[in-house]
Amino acid sequence: MCFRKRNGYRPPDHFNAKIYTGPVPTERESPMALGEASPGLRATGGPAAAQRPNACCFCWCCCCSCSCLTVRNEDDSRSKRRSSQDTKLETIPNCEACTKPSIEEVRLWSQSFDKLMKNPAGRNVFREFLRTEYSEENMLFWLACEDLKKELNTGAVEEKARGIYEDYISILSPKEVSLDARVREGINKKMTEPTQQTFEDAQLQIYTLMHRDSYPRFLNSSIYRSLAQMGSRSSSES
To answer: Is the dihedral of CA 82, 88, 94, 100 positive or negative?
Structure first.
């Protein structure tokens, strides 16, 4: 046995000290070790997240010009444009003022489309049906043309005509009606000096479209059948 160990000799502490190699870089520490050592930082996101609460999920530098923030801003702008178009579609004139349809009126609606369109209550019910088919703009355009025909003031005629064009003829309008190229070209020529008859051909085309396409489905719809059944039930009870 060594003499020094036998006599209880112990070397100085600096013999057992670890050799100093400088500070350990933070890059060498594994993310798992950091997470286990400081769970509070993992939960809160660390000091960097505290300084930048709106940190991007794809960009650790949290710069304002990262690509994902640009995509998010573009999506927000698209959603705003869609909401503005939806609002414009919803801001439509109210239904015509009329009384509750009688049993005879409801029965006449099934006889001809002309009788339906000449009746204010019939137009309201038919308009409600068109709304379920997302084609209410056809009735709105027809009503706007009827209102234009009754206008006598020249200045008001021009103003209403331009309003009808912007709402139902322009390709940029969400309420654009379906017209062929011939009728649309004729309207464009007449808009230089609009009159009460500027949209006469277009109104007739939309009227024919509603008659041939929408009217047969209206007679078989639940909206009309419920009115007809209520009329037949009340007549049988009386």
So the answer is: negative
Q: How many domains does the chain have?
A: 1
Give per-residue pLDDT as tens, 112-159: 999 999 999 999 999 999 999 999 999 999 999 999 999 999 999 999
State the CATH number of the domain containing residue 225: 1.10.167.10
Distance CA(183)–CA(74), nearest Å, equals 38
In a domain, 200, yes or no: yes
Query: pLDDT tens across 40-62, in order?
Result: 444 444 444 444 444 444 444 44
pTM of the model: 0.60
Domain that holds residue 212: 120-237
92 CB-contact burial (10 Å; exposed 0-12 / middle 13-18 / buried 19+)? middle
Q: DSSP letter string over the chain?
A: --HHHHTT----HHHHSPPP--PPPGGGS-HHHHHHH-HHHHHHTHHHHHH-TT--SS-TT--TT-HHHHHHHHHHHHHHHHHHHHHHHH--PPPPP-PPPPHHHHHHHTT-HHHHHHSHHHHHHHHHHHHHTT-HHHHHHHHHHHHHHT---HHHHHHHHHHHIIIIISTT-TT-----HHHHHHHHHHTTS--TTTTHHHHHHHHHHIIIIIHHHHHTSHHHHHHHHHHHHHHHH-
